[in-house]
């Protein structure tokens, strides 16, 4: 059974508690699947897993926060040290907003106040083609909810920037295949953002014109939540590969797909007969000596172009 931990870096707002039960439940709604165990640690209140508990988890999620990722609060520094440990162990880490920023700091990057000020509302980001995302069928542009005034300013050379926007230079990054940062909030919906905007307005923390523009941004559409869910789950759990064929029974050719950037999963040309013979595209087994079992495959799309979505489960 897979096990994951969420590092909760902010207190639950009254709206989120009433509407969703808390931010932990919001993240579970986006990431959790049947048969998994999820634990929450309120790191902003000093609640951290013990050193002997770290290896119990397959992956970790770091949430947003009202605190500064470039600050030196006691719990921030403690979280920073823990993220460095997780990075050294090549543990899966997904950072969102503040989590994105402090993860970059743990990797050797720099964060600080955004030179362009607050970024609030719906925004379209540009995702760059990269081998790191080759296993995820995602468009070149994605809509996401933004709510931040800090940003990642610099990353070390071994970390790849994989998305930018007109407002923010580093919207997403990946370090190898084990660490991913997302500046936006794929877990948010319009209601959560509007409640946060109203709270800032009540405290005179933002101008009314900015608040109005942020709320009006939803008139152009909603965030690509299903795509974000697929991407975040696929990254965190390493369970998604996409094979594209022109039509049922077509020879695909020789190519390798990788998990953990090093382990050959399968030679597609060797298994082309499986695609031909499995007319219903339900499932198949792989008999070669690889560290995976339970392959599930489903068919998406009709006509000349068909996507074969394959799920892998570690042995």
Automatic annotation (TrEMBL):
PROSITE patterns: GATASE_TYPE_1. Residues 58-189 form the Glutamine amidotransferase domain. InterPro entries: ChyE-like (IPR044992), Class_I_gatase-like (IPR029062), GATASE (IPR017926). GO terms for cellular component: cytosol. It comes from the Eukaryota. Belongs to the peptidase C26 family. This is Glutamine amidotransferase domain-containing protein. It comes from Aristolochia fimbriata (White veined hardy Dutchman's pipe vine).
């Amino acid at each position: 059974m897979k096990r994951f931990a969420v590092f909760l870096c902010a207190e639950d707002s009254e709206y989120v508690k009433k509407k969703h039960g808390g931010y932990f439940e919001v993240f579970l709604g986006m990431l959790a699947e049947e048969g998994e165990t999820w634990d929450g640690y309120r790191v902003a209140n000093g609640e951290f897993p013990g050193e002997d508990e770290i290896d119990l988890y397959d992956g970790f999620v770091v949430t947003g926060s009202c605190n500064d990722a470039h600050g030196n609060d006691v719990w921030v520094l403690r979280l920073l040290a823990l993220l460095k440990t997780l990075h050294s162990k090549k543990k899966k880490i997904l950072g969102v907003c503040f989590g994105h920023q402090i993860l970059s700091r743990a990797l050797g990057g720099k964060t600080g106040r955004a030179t362009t000020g607050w970024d609030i509302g719906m925004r379209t980001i540009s995702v760059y083609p990269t081998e790191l995302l080759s296993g995820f069928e995602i468009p070149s542009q994605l809509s996401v909810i933004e709510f931040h005034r800090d940003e990642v300013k610099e990353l070390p050379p071994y970390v790849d920037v994989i998305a930018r926007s007109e407002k923010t230079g580093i919207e997403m990054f990946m370090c190898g295949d084990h660490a991913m940062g997302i500046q936006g909030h794929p877990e948010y919906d319009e209601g959560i953002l509007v409640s946060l905007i109203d709270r800032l307005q009540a405290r005179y923390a933002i101008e009314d014109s900015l608040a109005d523009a942020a709320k009006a941004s939803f008139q152009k559409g909603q965030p690509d939540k299903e795509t974000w869910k697929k991407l975040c789950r696929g990254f965190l759990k390493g369970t998604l590969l996409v094979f594209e064929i022109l039509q049922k029974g077509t020879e695909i050719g020789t190519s390798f797909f990788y998990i953990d950037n090093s382990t050959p999963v399968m030679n597609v040309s060797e298994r082309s007969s499986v695609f031909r013979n499995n007319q219903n595209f339900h499932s198949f087994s792989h008999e070669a000596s690889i560290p995976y079992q339970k392959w599930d495959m489903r068919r998406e799309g009709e006509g000349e172009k068909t996507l074969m979505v394959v799920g892998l489960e570690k042995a």
